[in-house]
Amino acid sequence: MKIIQKSDRVSLRRRVEQGTEEQRKTVQAIIEDVKSRGDEAVLNYTERFDGVKLDQYKVSPEEFEEAYEALDGEFVEILQEAAANIRRFHEKQRPASWFDSSEDGTILGQKITAIEAAGVYVPGGTAAYPSSVFMNVIPAQVAGVERIVMVTPPGKDGKVPDGVLLAAHILGVEDVYKVGGAQAIAALAYGTETVPAVDKITGPGNVFVALAKREVFGDVDIDMIAGPSEIAILADDTALASEVAADLLSQAEHDARSSSVLVTTSQQLAEQVQQEVKNQLEDLPRAEIARKSVEDYGMILLCETWGEAITTINEIAPEHLEIVTDEPFQHLGKIKNAGAIFLGPYSSEPVGDYFAGPNHVLPTNGTARFSSPLNVDDFLKKSSVISYSEDALKKHGDKIARYARLEGLEAHARAIDTRKERWK
Predict the structure, then answer these.
(1) Is 407 labelled a binding residue?
(2) The whole model's pTM is what?
């Protein structure tokens, strides 16, 4: 892991992945094929890309039961407690409709309505992610979404990991389909004979999933285009190098393209963390992935002043930010760009990933400059409500008509003028 002087003006902004032209064309072809052939296309692509031939791909009640029985009771209790924490946090986000009335009889307001159907993509591949089930489904449930459809790639055995099915079972999600990749996104967006179409798709995936979400946006809504995972740690010399290194590697093991960055003013800490990362990689089960990540995208940025360190963090706009300093709350107000902020030595990033309650679907690639974690609002629509009284239109009608004519829209103006006939 390289130690770099911040004064060297290293580029900190990661480019949002666009995919290659070949990948985009492949995704477009898959989407059109699924729109045309439905289940047949989905099953063909599942055999081709996942290496498993399925006759049908909806998870059966028996598969849910088998998953529940396969896992020990303690793990079930852990998942149930985590789900309760996540639900409690998201229930505090739920907004209410509101209305405001004036003396002239005008009523203005905002009506909050949940979207009718949401699709959740849970990634598979090198790991199983029951946490992704909770983080995508629970805010949708809290918002009041009536129908939630989940898709996730099958393993070579044609099954979904037990932990993923258990998480869905705990939340009461029964519409779970064994399909991944661009074909899963197409099925959710446009529907097939088996998979019902939805109004919004959430959840991270590989580059083909990201490109497919980009393609279907407009026909359905999406949460974000998620890139590789990121962590930045802002630390002073009170931080323990072993803990900082472990937290950096907690993200590096996700993906060879993940980014792990330490920002500090302490030369001693920088050198200690550099050595600790090297040491801890020796016996890490996913060492090959993590080593590639820290070599290509990891760095230790050594700043001259604390102000420069804060500025650097805001420039990175990290998905996850840990502040491991003597007084972490003192710096919270200065952080402008971060998806999730973890304060103090006991708030390691996995605490938020799994258990604390806040959502772990977070903006990546610097998009924390303008976007937020997945939340209840993402599953809600807001309708403006306007009710003008007779007195209010009498008072303001001429102004409105004149405004319309200023924009050259005579029909707009006449729509107001015609109502004057009521008062003659």
Answers:
(1) yes
(2) 0.92
